[in-house]
Structure formats: structure tokens, C-alpha cells
Hints:
By secondary structure, the protein is of the alpha+beta class. It has seven helices and six strands, in the order ββααααβαβαββα.
Amino acid sequence: MRASATGRLLVDPKGGSFWFDAGAVCLDFAHTGGEGQYARFETLREPSALASWLAEPPLSAAMTAPVTADDLTAAKALRQAIWEAAHAQAAGRPLPAAAIATINHAAAAAPLIPELAFAGATDDPDRAATLGAGDLVFARWAAPVGVTQAMSTLAREMIELLTGPLAGRIRECASDNCPMVFVDSSRPGARRWCSMERCGNRHKLRALRERRAADR
């Protein structure tokens, strides 16, 4: 479990991939697909895909029960609500009431609960009694680890983001045709692009061509 790191490798349907760090796990989740014109970017096409996404760092929430079709539907509803709320915040518009209701509903459930565990822990009482300060301790999510708990954790993170000190730094990529949204947590607060590898480099190349054309 690594709650401090964010970012995912995204694959373009046309080919190629790039690293995108939305600055928050809930916003990373919002970019796993979408509705309408964004349906072609869908990565959560089946319950197992949702389970795999949640099990990857930084959330590292390995499900302790099978993910169902209903779980997937609820997760996609929250994803859309986070997307809509983030874009409204970035544009300075009022947050959509339906999105707020969906986020609040998800957050009302019990979230993922962290716990400490010994590496190599066992149910053997004799062995458990010997575990102590010399054994490696790590953090994990306490059971049950289900989609409901994971969605509550993401929804609560979104609520904290929208009401916290970084609320004014939720931004949409400065590219004319990129709808990706992120929270700029950098010290200078000068981030403009979803990724320098993608839109940042495209902007630099376009500016270079324009300067060369002007020189000619």
C-alpha cells in the first residue's frame, strides 16, 4: 500500500502510451474511461479489469471478494461524478448536484482501513507469539477489501480535494483539444499540461514550427 504516489501509464487507442499523473488517485481513476466520446478510452470493460486497477499501486487494494457487474456499474457512476466535478471546479462552474450526490453516497460507506502486519505472519499462535520488534512490519488494508470500501476511499479523497487548499489548483490541460484534468501540487503551481511527454511536447513543436514559419 503506497498512498503517497499517484500516476498511471495510459494507452492511446491509436497506439502509443504516456505517463499521466493526475496528482490524486481519485483523478487517476477518473481517467480510466468514460461516457459518450470518451467511451473509446474505456479500460474497465469487465469486473476483473476494475479489480486489477484497484490492486495496482498506489491504492494496492487487492479485493477479498469477487468484483461483480453491479460493483463495476457503481464504480463507473462514481468515476463519472468525479470527472464532472473536477471539470466544473477547473472551469470555475458550480459543481453539478447529481455529481455531488453520487460522491457523497459513495463516501458514506465504510472506507478502506489500514492496518499494520508482520511479514510472514501466521495463524499459528505459537509462531504469532514470537513475532516482535525484530520482524518486518508493513501496512495493508484490513479485511474486508471490497469495491464499496475502495470507492468510499476515492470519494472521500475527492471531497478533501474539492474542499482543501488545492481546490484552486484543479486544472484542465492547457492544450486546445485535451480534456484531461489534474491537480497541480507542485510548489510553484505552474503546471499547464497533462504530461510534458504528450501535450507539453506537442505545444513546443507547434511553437517551434510557428517561429520557423515566421522567420521564413
